[in-house]
Amino acid sequence: LWTTMMAGRQPFFVQNGKLGLRFRPTLPGRLFDKDGRLTFTFLGRVPVTYHNYDRRDLFPDNGMRAQSMTLHLSDQRQIECVGDVIDERYSRMVRAGQMRRIDVHFPYTASMSTADSVSSLPKGDTG
Q1: Is residue 8 helix, strand or coil?
Q2: What mean pLDDT is reported for the chain?
Q3: How far apart are CA 3 and CA 101, in angstroms?
Q4: What ranges make up the beta strands (E) of 1-127?
Protein backbone atom coordinates (compact mmCIF):
# COMPACT_ATOMS: atom_id res chain seq x y z
CA LEU A 1 0.00 0.00 0.00
CA TRP A 2 2.81 2.43 0.92
CA THR A 3 4.60 1.93 -2.42
CA THR A 4 1.35 2.49 -4.34
CA MET A 5 0.65 5.71 -2.42
CA MET A 6 4.16 7.04 -2.92
CA ALA A 7 5.06 5.92 -6.46
CA GLY A 8 1.81 4.80 -8.09
CA ARG A 9 0.39 1.43 -9.09
CA GLN A 10 2.94 0.65 -11.79
CA PRO A 11 5.88 3.05 -11.78
CA PHE A 12 7.83 0.97 -14.31
CA PHE A 13 6.13 0.26 -17.62
CA VAL A 14 6.96 -0.88 -21.13
CA GLN A 15 5.73 1.09 -24.13
CA ASN A 16 6.76 0.29 -27.70
CA GLY A 17 9.28 -2.18 -26.32
CA LYS A 18 11.01 0.47 -24.17
CA LEU A 19 11.17 0.59 -20.38
CA GLY A 20 9.96 3.78 -18.71
CA LEU A 21 9.46 5.09 -15.19
CA ARG A 22 6.65 7.41 -14.14
CA PHE A 23 5.76 8.51 -10.61
CA ARG A 24 2.00 8.86 -10.08
CA PRO A 25 1.51 9.16 -6.33
CA THR A 26 -1.76 9.25 -4.44
CA LEU A 27 -1.04 11.74 -1.68
CA PRO A 28 -3.14 14.34 0.11
CA GLY A 29 -1.54 17.79 0.20
CA ARG A 30 -1.43 17.81 4.00
CA LEU A 31 1.38 15.21 3.95
CA PHE A 32 3.82 17.73 2.40
CA ASP A 33 5.94 19.83 4.74
CA LYS A 34 5.58 23.62 4.96
CA ASP A 35 7.95 23.99 1.99
CA GLY A 36 5.88 21.60 -0.13
CA ARG A 37 8.33 18.69 0.03
CA LEU A 38 7.92 15.01 0.79
CA THR A 39 10.74 12.44 0.53
CA PHE A 40 10.55 8.65 0.38
CA THR A 41 12.92 5.85 -0.56
CA PHE A 42 12.17 4.09 -3.85
CA LEU A 43 13.24 0.48 -4.32
CA GLY A 44 14.86 0.57 -0.89
CA ARG A 45 17.78 2.75 -2.02
CA VAL A 46 16.85 5.80 -4.13
CA PRO A 47 15.62 8.90 -2.27
CA VAL A 48 12.82 10.60 -4.21
CA THR A 49 11.66 14.08 -3.21
CA TYR A 50 8.37 15.44 -4.46
CA HIS A 51 8.26 19.23 -4.76
CA ASN A 52 4.62 20.31 -4.53
CA TYR A 53 4.88 23.96 -3.50
CA ASP A 54 1.12 24.54 -3.53
CA ARG A 55 0.67 21.44 -1.32
CA ARG A 56 -2.11 20.28 -3.62
CA ASP A 57 -3.56 16.79 -3.46
CA LEU A 58 -1.76 14.47 -5.87
CA PHE A 59 -4.35 11.98 -7.06
CA PRO A 60 -4.26 10.09 -10.38
CA ASP A 61 -7.63 11.51 -11.45
CA ASN A 62 -6.99 15.21 -10.69
CA GLY A 63 -4.48 15.79 -13.49
CA MET A 64 -1.52 16.64 -11.26
CA ARG A 65 1.45 15.08 -13.00
CA ALA A 66 5.15 15.77 -12.74
CA GLN A 67 6.20 18.80 -14.74
CA SER A 68 9.91 18.02 -14.58
CA MET A 69 12.43 15.81 -12.81
CA THR A 70 16.07 16.17 -11.85
CA LEU A 71 18.02 12.92 -11.85
CA HIS A 72 21.13 12.92 -9.67
CA LEU A 73 23.34 10.16 -11.07
CA SER A 74 25.90 8.26 -9.01
CA ASP A 75 28.72 9.82 -11.10
CA GLN A 76 27.66 13.29 -9.85
CA ARG A 77 25.98 14.32 -13.14
CA GLN A 78 22.51 15.84 -13.11
CA ILE A 79 19.99 15.22 -15.86
CA GLU A 80 16.96 17.48 -16.26
CA CYS A 81 13.88 15.73 -17.65
CA VAL A 82 10.83 17.59 -18.93
CA GLY A 83 7.50 15.89 -18.31
CA ASP A 84 6.51 12.93 -16.20
CA VAL A 85 8.44 10.02 -17.79
CA ILE A 86 12.01 8.89 -17.22
CA ASP A 87 13.24 7.21 -20.41
CA GLU A 88 14.67 3.71 -20.70
CA ARG A 89 18.33 4.59 -20.21
CA TYR A 90 17.74 6.30 -16.88
CA SER A 91 14.92 3.94 -15.79
CA ARG A 92 17.40 1.08 -15.99
CA MET A 93 19.89 3.10 -13.94
CA VAL A 94 17.25 3.63 -11.23
CA ARG A 95 16.51 -0.12 -11.14
CA ALA A 96 20.25 -0.88 -10.93
CA GLY A 97 20.74 1.53 -8.02
CA GLN A 98 22.91 3.92 -10.04
CA MET A 99 20.91 7.00 -9.06
CA ARG A 100 21.83 9.07 -5.98
CA ARG A 101 18.41 10.71 -5.81
CA ILE A 102 15.49 12.02 -7.87
CA ASP A 103 13.67 15.35 -7.48
CA VAL A 104 10.16 15.39 -8.95
CA HIS A 105 8.59 18.81 -9.52
CA PHE A 106 4.83 19.30 -9.78
CA PRO A 107 3.18 22.41 -11.30
CA TYR A 108 2.67 25.46 -9.10
CA THR A 109 -0.96 25.98 -10.11
CA ALA A 110 -4.00 23.91 -10.94
CA SER A 111 -4.23 25.44 -14.41
CA MET A 112 -2.41 22.60 -16.13
CA SER A 113 -3.67 21.16 -19.39
CA THR A 114 -3.08 17.63 -20.65
CA ALA A 115 -0.60 19.02 -23.20
CA ASP A 116 1.56 20.31 -20.34
CA SER A 117 2.29 16.76 -19.20
CA VAL A 118 3.64 15.43 -22.50
CA SER A 119 7.02 13.81 -21.95
CA SER A 120 10.17 14.62 -23.84
CA LEU A 121 13.80 13.58 -23.80
CA PRO A 122 15.99 14.93 -21.01
CA LYS A 123 17.32 18.40 -21.75
CA GLY A 124 20.93 18.47 -22.86
CA ASP A 125 21.18 14.70 -23.21
CA THR A 126 22.83 13.50 -26.38
CA GLY A 127 21.75 9.93 -25.89
Answers
A1: coil
A2: 87
A3: 17
A4: 12-15, 18-21, 37-42, 46-51, 68-73, 78-82, 99-105
Neighbours of 41 (CB within 10 A): 11
- DSSP state letters, 59-98: -GGGT---SEEEEEETTS-EEEEESS-B-HHHHHHHHTT-
d(C-alpha 7, C-alpha 75), whole Å:
24
Contact by Cβ (8 Å): 35, 52: no
d(CA 74, CA 35): 26
CB 11 within 8 A of CB 24: yes
**Per-residue pLDDT reduced to its tens digit, 88-99:** 999 999 999 999
**Cα(58)–Cα(80) distance, rounded to whole angstroms?**
22
Reduced to 3 states (helix: H, G, I; strand: E, B; else coil), residue 104 is strand
> 37 has which bridge partners?
51
pLDDT, residue 116, reads 41
- Which pTM value belongs to this model? 0.83
